[in-house]
Design goal:
By secondary structure, the protein is an all-beta fold. The protein folds into 2 domains: 148 residues, Immunoglobulin-like, CATH 2.60.40; 116 residues, Immunoglobulin-like. The chain contains 1 helix and 19 strands. Strands 5, 6, 9, 10 and 11 form a 5-stranded antiparallel sheet that branches. Strands 14, 15, 17, 18 and 19 form a 5-stranded antiparallel sheet that branches. A 3-stranded antiparallel sheet has the order 1-4-7, with no helix packed on it. The longest helix is centred in the first third of the chain and has 5 residues. The chain is elongated and about 90 Å long. It starts with a helix and ends with a strand.
């Protein structure tokens, strides 16, 4: 029997108020001031925790207690309208069952987030579920307005502006980068910045072209960043032609350097 049909014969709790959305606050690994926490709609592919809550959860029955309750945040393709729900649970928070007529006022929990593997737009739906008959069934729900971009956590971030200037006579490249940051709970491996000359702007995956300069950087501790980098690199001149110059960040994983982020060249440059 469908979950909604079962609920007609069971005591169940309700989310209140019924005419407004529940709240959703996002938390990041790196400490941030509370005023920087943003409410929906937003992009949360850097997020590791989320606060779920509402004004009230009410058991309207005068005689029957509810089973254990669960708030679940879902990423779905379309706003949920009842019945079976299809999507991905990205966060859950458990509450003890309510006695007859009892209420949770301003309930909230801050669970970890499990984000979808593909970054795209989803509708967020918060369901209130009750354990009954050996499973959790949906007792009430609220959809968040609009859509939210969800995706895997970006472990590294290269932040511009950035610039480079080569000197053929001097055999060097001047490189400036605004920021390198990371979201690892622990430290990183050793880092390497490289300038690559490619026929097309680099968009990820394997890279084909000519490495024209590299910069070695020490590993970053948790919560640490590199800012306002200004360095001189040895210039390795590519064959004559027109190329896009891309900034590529790699991390040493114990046996090799792997690409973790990049910034594509905005316009082609002619090398003679």
């Amino acid at each position: 029997m469908a979950a909604r049909a079962i609920q007609r014969f069971l005591p169940h709790a309700h989310l209140f108020p019924s005419d407004t959305s529940p709240f959703l606050l996002l938390h990041h690994r790196q400490p941030r001031r509370s005023q920087n926490r943003r409410r929906h709609p937003l992009q949360i592919y850097h997020t590791t925790r989320v606060t779920l809550g509402c004004d009230r959860i009410v058991n309207p029955s005068r005689e029957n207690a509810t089973g254990t309750l669960m708030l679940r945040l879902w990423a779905v393709d379309q706003p949920y309208q009842g019945g079976g729900i299809q999507g991905k649970v990205i966060a859950s928070a458990r509450f003890e069952g309510l006695n007859p007529g009892n209420v949770y006022t301003n309930p909230s929990r801050t669970p970890d987030v499990t984000l979808p593997p593909a970054k795209r737009a989803y509708t967020l739906c918060l369901t209130l579920m009750e354990f009954s008959g050996g499973e959790y069934v949906i007792a009430d729900y609220r959809n968040f307005p609009g859509t939210t971009v969800l995706g895997p956590i970006d472990l590294f971030s290269l932040t511009g502006p950035w610039s480079w200037q080569s000197s053929t006579e001097g055999g060097t490249i001047g490189l400036e980068v605004a920021k390198i940051s990371h979201n690892r709970p622990g430290g990183t491996g050793s880092l390497r910045l490289a300038l690559w000359a490619t026929k097309q702007p680099y968009q990820g995956g394997g890279i084909k072209g000519f490495m024209i300069g590299t910069l070695q950087k020490d590993a970053l501790k948790p919560g640490y960043t590199y800012t306002n980098l200004k360095n001189t690199l040895k210039y390795i001149k590519p064959p004559a032609g027109q190329y896009y110059v891309n900034l590529v960040l790699t991390e040493f994983n114990g046996s090799d350097y792997l690409i973790v982020d990049s910034i594509a060249g905005a316009k082609p440059v002619v090398f003679r």
